[in-house]
Amino acid sequence: MSSQHITLRPGTRGRPSDMTKHAAIMTAAQKLFMENGYAATSMERIAEAAQVSKLTVYRHFQSKDALFAEAVARKCRTMLNDLGTEATRAQEPAAMLQAAGEAFLGLVLHPEALAMHQIIVGERQRSPELGLLFFDNAIAFTQAQVSALVGVLLARGVLAGDPAEIAGDYLALLRHRPMLLQEFGMAPFEDTTRAAHIARCAAVILRAYAPPAQARSISGTD
């Protein structure tokens, strides 16, 4: 079982017919995973739904693990892509963290992400490899994206510390309240409430990880 960001076999990338088949396989797999769960979704059923041969599916994806990993990774790349742009990294610190928070909560609270989370929780006994696949292709990827953004703030002298630790703390703060409400069936955050929540979390990070001299200035100590 491989948990890397695997996908295409050599020779499948670039040709229009292959890319069309690749998209059809991915669409069919995502739909079947959501409807039937991971264990009950076979490569045969995916091939049938995508209207391609089973051999074609295996030409694009080495295994069901690879297909599931790519489905997770693609969603993360789509939702977090803007964090790497020059426009985002040129913003003021609070605005940078706000953008990261909006992208992150947009991802983890998306219906497809919530459904994927339920699949992993529900099938972890039968398919324990799902947790590792999800961690490598979603959690670790997201942490790396936000860590890179934090690295920009470290280079500017706005923050001090380990970028992975800072990013982890920020993501944990962001996720706690919205997911708690989600898990207990409470009303989800409205847009204005979400924005205010992200701003509070960003302020906590900017204060907690401020460089020593700046932290003393904030606290009013000499």
Description:
With 222 residues, the chain is mainly α. It contains 11 helices and no strands. The longest helix is centred in the middle third of the chain and has 28 residues, at 129-156.
Attribute tags:
mainly alpha; 222 residues; 11 helices; disordered N terminus
What layout of secondary structure does this protein have?
Layout lengths: L15 H21 L6 H8 L3 H7 L3 H17 L5 H4 L3 H16 L2 H13 L5 H28 L6 H21 L7 H18 L3 H8 L3
Helix pairs in contact: 1-2, 1-4, 2-3, 4-6, 4-8, 6-8, 6-9, 6-10, 8-9, 9-10
**So what's the overall shape?**
elongated
Helicity level, as a percent range? over 70%
Uncertain residue ranges: 1-14
How would a crystallographer describe the biggest sheet?
A: none
Instruction: Provide a count of the helices.
Output: 11
Concise structural overview:
This protein is mainly alpha-helical.
